[in-house]
Write a structure and sequence with these properties.
Layout: H1 2-17, E1 36-38, E2 43-44, E3 47-48, E4 52-55, E5 63-65, E6 70-77, E7 84-89, E8 95-99, E9 101-104, H2 106-119, E10 124-126, E11 134-135, E12 140-144, E13 154-160, E14 166-167, E15 183-191, E16 197-198, E17 205-206, E18 209-211, E19 217-219, E20 222-235, E21 249-254, E22 257-263, H3 275-278, H4 281-287, E23 292-293, E24 313-315, E25 320-328, E26 334-343, E27 360-361, E28 367-371, E29 374-378, E30 387-388, E31 391-394, E32 397-400, E33 411-416, H5 422-425, E34 428-434, E35 439-442, E36 445-448, E37 451-456, E38 460-466, E39 472-475, E40 482-483, E41 489-495, E42 501-508, E43 511-512, E44 515-518, E45 523-527, E46 537-546, E47 551-559
Parallel strand pairs: 19-26, 20-26, 40-47
Antiparallel strand pairs: 1-4, 2-3, 4-13, 5-12, 6-7, 6-10, 6-11, 7-8, 8-13, 9-12, 13-14, 15-17, 15-20, 16-20, 18-19, 20-23, 20-24, 21-22, 21-25, 25-26, 27-30, 28-29, 29-33, 31-32, 32-38, 33-37, 34-35, 34-38, 36-37, 39-41, 41-45, 42-43, 42-46, 44-45, 46-47
């Protein structure tokens, strides 16, 4: 192993010398030391993490400064995703991204609000000209927050190249204290065809993992035959945080020869969907644990580097092999796993049975499934592999396999609802049934004549659901006919128990007002500093509409000097 390690260190030093990214150009965007809640390219739901998540000491409102001089090239405000996000383009061709913001610096905030009021929309996307919003390095551009799909206060920070590909910010000299080795949580062995077996079984095997005194790991010895592969669950932790973060590099070796490598340096947004083919998707769907496959099957990810036979291992009878996995973080802290493999042709005592249904999906062909007024369009290249799919329609309930197959793109579900009256039809939507209680989760549904149409990437059980209940609207921090002269904010809570909130609109004395919506707290907030309110007597009106068109109106009178 030491010989292999020495070879690798030579390779690492050579690779570091080839790092052409500027090392002193970008500075820490915060005024506190960098402690990470999330690392670059770590495995997330349906995507790789495109930046680093910097902790903000569980606070909002910390100063965020431009990491380098440039100009604001894009601003996006959304209820979900990045929430409030700022993009700064720099003279060297790179773009930095700052997301989940509380608000922008005063000049940028004024620029954005002007456009929001002109468009009468909270959600907005702007592309300022280079001369509109120039910024200098280390100057204030925003304040940290928790907007969008953030699970807690932090700054999501990215560096992208001219092709909009996110790159690991650590490559630019952004430093994080890390002296801890990655943690290997589990390792699995996979027979990769019907003629392969591991420990007399044709099914995936979880291997017993034993930590060694030097920090490495050893598994139980295995007996195998045919083509096999391995998968690993691993995380990294930095010195100042307990978060389970992603690793930087994984390599495998078979009898001293490099077998496979995945390097988390850079990727494109167009390929991030292939994460679901990198992991054991069925295992994740059923066990909620991401096992990263150390072999490649029908996966075009650019993160793959050196591979021998795509990471597959062919085990011959009467052979002895040593398989090693090296997991490293950016600071080159490493952990090794060793697996001893004995090749044998012993008979299989347990063979995995493949379920056969009347419906066989060929991944390279378009397939239409139809039954009982429900039609499914599975387009070419929706899936990564051919398989037998479960398909059954019982009344208005559609069983479309289990969510154990990774998809590349949306497929279409169409319900013929002509048997319903027009009144009932307008309150229907297509729902995916989730959890043991089969909770009907709204799937974005469109209407065309007497058809309901939904597009989704997830298999599972679907049904028609009805929503006849209007959204709820209530005041949070005021009462009807109250004097609000000393108030800075007006807060309204909105909620919908059926199909969910689709839109809202608020006015004071007939003038549209900007109300920020935080879906996590279900609260709308208006800032009186927007100076829309100029009268003493004011009529507030809020209209909220759900996804099938039910709407509620809230009105209240307040006074202000």
């Amino acid at each position: 192993m030491r010989f292999i390690l020495s070879l690798f260190l030579v390779f690492t030093l050579f690779s570091s010398a080839q790092n052409n990214y500027p090392q002193d150009y970008f500075s820490n965007p915060l005024e506190i030391p960098i402690v990470l809640a999330g690392t670059f390219a770590e495995l997330r739901s349906n995507h790789f993490h495109s930046g680093i998540d910097i902790k903000t000491q569980q606070r909002k409102g910390l100063n965020i400064n431009a990491s380098a001089s440039g100009f604001v090239s894009r601003i996006k405000v959304a209820h979900f995703g990045y929430g409030k996000a700022l993009y700064i383009t720099h003279p060297n061709g790179y773009t930095t991204v700052y997301a989940h913001l509380q608000k922008f610096s005063p000049d940028i905030e004024a620029y954005v609000k002007k456009q929001q009021y002109e468009n009468e929309s909270y959600e907005i996307e702007l592309f300022p000209k280079a001369e509109d919003l120039p910024v200098l390095k280390n100057n204030l551009v925003a304040y940290s927050g928790n907007s969008g799909g953030s699970g807690g206060p932090h700054l999501h920070f990215e560096i992208r190249d001219k092709k909009e590909r996110p790159i690991n910010p650590m490559l630019f000299g952004i430093d994080v204290k890390d002296t801890s080795n990655p943690v290997i949580k589990s390792i699995y062995a996979y027979p990769l065809n019907k003629n392969s077996f591991i420990n007399k079984s044709n099914s995936k095997q979880k291997l017993r993992l034993t930590p060694l005194k030097n920090g490495d790991y050893m598994t139980e010895n295995i007996e195998a035959s045919g083509t096999i592969g391995f998968g690993i669950s691993t995380v990294d932790r930095q010195d100042l945080a307990a978060n389970s973060n992603g690793v930087y590099n994984i390599q495998t070796f078979i009898n001293g020869n490099r077998n496979f490598e995945i390097d988390f340096k850079r990727f494109s947004f167009s390929e991030t969907k292939h994460l679901n083919q990198l992991i054991d998707y069925e295992h994740f769907s059923t066990q909620k644990q991401r096992i990263q496959k150390l072999f490649r099957i029908n996966n075009p990810l650019s993160l793959f580097k050196s591979t021998l036979n795509d990471g597959f291992i062919k085990v011959e009878d009467s052979t002895y092999s040593v398989y090693k996995v090296r997991v490293a973080d950016y600071k080159n802290n490493e952990s090794w796993v060793t697996v001893h493999i004995k090749g044998t042709k012993k008979s299989i005592s347990k063979s995995e049975e493949k379920k056969v249904t009347p419906y066989f999906i060929k991944a390279d062909q378009t397939t239409n499934l139809k039954s009982g007024g429900v039609s499914i369009d599975l387009y070419k290249d929706t899936f990564y592999e051919d398989f037998y799919i479960d398909f059954e329609v019982n009344n208005d309930t559609l069983t479309l396999h289990k969510d154990v197959k990774a998809t590349k793109k949306n497929f279409t579900i169409t319900y013929d609802v002509s048997k319903y009256t027009n009144e009932d039809r307008n309150k229907l939507y297509i729902a995916r049934l989730i959890g043991y209680k089969n909770y009907p989760a709204y799937t974005y549904t469109t209407r065309k004549n007497h058809f309901l149409i939904a597009k989704t990437k997830k298999l599972g059980t679907f049904a028609l659901a009805t929503d006849t209940i209007k959204p709820k609207i209530s005041a949070v921090n005021f009462k009807d006919k109250q004097w609000l002269s000393k108030y800075r904010y007006l807060k309204i809570k909105i909620d919908d128990q059926g199909s969910g909130i689709s839109s809202y609109r608020a006015t004071i004395n007939g003038k549209w007002i900007l109300m920020e919506y935080d879906y996590k707290t279900k609260v709308l907030i208006y800032d009186f500093n927007d100076s829309v309110v100029t009268d003493t007597k004011n009529n507030l009106k809020v209209i909220v509409t759900d996804n099938v068109g039910n709407n509620s109106t809230f009105e209240s009178l307040f006074y202000r000097k």
